[in-house]
Each structure stands twice: as structure tokens, then as C-alpha cells.
Write a sequence for this structure.
């Protein structure tokens, strides 16, 4: 019995098409499930902040690089920079956390801003020293620690910390 090459060729094309369709369906399903799982925790606001849906009792945003929601309300106010590049104000006049200042400081990628609600003193000290050393390598000799102090202050506000002042951590680095 002779082999019908046209039939074999058409069957191979059909197998390729079916395989491609199965692959497309698989990709669409996997993208849909990962999008659903990430959007289940947070929703993005138009200003780029994330709304906390994990803990509905905390209506405040999860601001990058944090992984938990702020313990205080947020506001948005323009900032001015001092000669050391420190943005101010860190808080708006009503005491809320200034998103503009948070975003300006988080652009420096400090470790302190991602420590969470209850870091140990040693974890905070380690992150603070790491940030201070990174800043020292980027700064001119004799530069002050204004950025690290501001990062500590705004992180303390965000997480509700009561560790005291940044100076005690600067002294131990």
C-alpha cells in the first residue's frame, strides 16, 4: 500500500496547529491566574500607590519598597530639597505621611524603608549602617547624614516605630 504523502503532511500540520493552540491556551490561563493572585492583595491608585486589600481594616496604601500598608494616612504635598538633597516636608500640615517625600527618598533604595512593622533593633541597625555606607560611597567627603535621617524619620512614621532618633543608629555604624 503506497504512502499518501499529502495526507501525512496535512496530519502533521494539524498536529502543529493543535499544539500551538494548546500552548496559547496554557499561556493565557497562567497569565490570568498570576494576574488574579497579585491583584487580590492590592489595587493600584491613579497616583501609583497601592491600596491594601489584604487587611481591609487598614485603609492605607502599601508604598514601595514597603511590603505592608502604612500605619498613617497619606497626603501629597510638593517638596523642597535642602543643600544635602533632603526632601521636606516629610509630613503634611495635618501630620499625614507626604507621598512626594516618601517617593523621593525611596528612589535612593534604602533598606530601612523595607523593614516592616516590627524589626529588631539589630535588623534596623544593620539596614541603617548598610544605607549609610552606600550613601558614603556616593557622597563627597564630609557629607552629612541628612538623607539617612530623613529615611529613618519617614519610615518611623510609616511603620509606627518608636526607636528614638536616627543619631543613636548613626553613632553605632
Amino acid at each position: 500500500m503506497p504512502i499518501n504523502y499529502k495526507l501525512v503532511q496535512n496530519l502533521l500540520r494539524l498536529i502543529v496547529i493543535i499544539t500551538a493552540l494548546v500552548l496559547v491556551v496554557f499561556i493565557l490561563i497562567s497569565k490570568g491566574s498570576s494576574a488574579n493572585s497579585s491583584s487580590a492583595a492590592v489595587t493600584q491608585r491613579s497616583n501609583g500607590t497601592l491600596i491594601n486589600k489584604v487587611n481591609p481594616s487598614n485603609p492605607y496604601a502599601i508604598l514601595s519598597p514597603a511590603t505592608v500598608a502604612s500605619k498613617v494616612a497619606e497626603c501629597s504635598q510638593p517638596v523642597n530639597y535642602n543643600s544635602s538633597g533632603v526632601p521636606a516636608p516629610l509630613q503634611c500640615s495635618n501630620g499625614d505621611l507626604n507621598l512626594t517625600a516618601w517617593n523621593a527618598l525611596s528612589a535612593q533604595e534604602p533598606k530601612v524603608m523595607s523593614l516592616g512593622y516590627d524589626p529588631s533593633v539589630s535588623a534596623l541597625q544593620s539596614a541603617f549602617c548598610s544605607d549609610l555606607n552606600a550613601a558614603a560611597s556616593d557622597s563627597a567627603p564630609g557629607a552629612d547624614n541628612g538623607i539617612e535621617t530623613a529615611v529613618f524619620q519617614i519610615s518611623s512614621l510609616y511603620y509606627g516605630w518608636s526607636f528614638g532618633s536616627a543619631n543613636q543608629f548613626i553613632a553605632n555604624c
